Amino acid sequence: MITIKTVVKTIRPSFLVLAPVCVFLGLGTAFASQHSINYFIFAQIMTAALLAHISVNTLNEYFDFNSGLDLKTTKTAFSGGSGALPAHPQAARLVLLTGLISLLLTMSIGIVIISESDAQVLPVGMLGIIRSLNGIALLNLFTQDGHILGSLQAQADSIAFDIQHA
Hints:
8 helices, disordered C terminus
């Protein structure tokens, strides 16, 4: 039971709200741009965004624990991880498995999204995969932007930025 609680803690549920916020922002942008909304693709994007976020969180927790970084970092609300793996190291393999399964499910949904919409969303998805696997914090911004851009791209078939002069 402690192992399951540890895995849930490494998912960091309180931070998962960011994924739906970004997806809704992309959806709202597509809607405001007068693109028709495909709710099947929207549901896939929402699911993939949540799974991607779970993957990033759990793999980051695992790699930081495995490298010893968790034991050297002063924990704050936004850095230092959840503290779950240093407290319960026996859960490390299950956390890794959770992250990898979440990543594979995300990639599978991404393939469906690409086949249903447009391959132009592929670079955004690839950036998210790279972020999941290497854990570089700088790329986290691009991953969240990817939720927004990917949501918009899948709904709009193309992204055009209209700059208006005042």
